[in-house]
Predict the structure.
Amino acid sequence: MNVLLVEDDKQVGEFIVAELLAAGHSCVHALDGEVGQQAASEATYDVMVVDRMMPRIDGLTLIETLRKAGNHTPVLVLSALGEVDDRVQGLHCGADDYLVKPFAMAELLARLEVLHRRVSLAGGDTQTRLVVADLSMDLLRQYVQRRDTPITLQPREYKLLEYLMRNAGQVVTRAMLLEHVWGYHFDPQTNVIDVHVSRLRQKIDKDFEPHLLATVRGTGYRLGPEFVD
């Protein structure tokens, strides 16, 4: 799963991120509601975890704003407010689930997996289109465009871009790409990935600003406009 976590408590947020990564998921952490809203508009996530009480934009307002904008990504509210009325209010604002602090990480993971599985089985909108900045991918038609310009990709380039878009904002290592895009374990020092990334970069970045695909020296790559100079 690719998770967007909106949590202003840095310590709690770092704990959740670490546990998600350890469980094999990816996670983008926004430290307030405004940054969370921006992150949700710039990339596609499988599920979101949103703290209720945050500065700038509170969690419930954030969820209502996203729903009005047509974002139907499953949302789990995380909050210290645990009365029945609090939970009902959260669900009425557009949340799909509500977990009260303090919580067990095992339960949080289980609830997120259920939300993700529910959407996958229903063929929900979050599974049909990926968006990072002005780059979009229609998963049903296998159609990629940047702004209004169609981009033609070879099958391996398409799979590579899809994986990068599903993990937008996160560092993706060469080993991860080999496993998830090529489907096998291999020497991460091989240049097959660099060759394909170079070709992909020519197609999605050469004629556009801002550039989106950054190389993280010695580690891998990261997709997102804020990571490329």
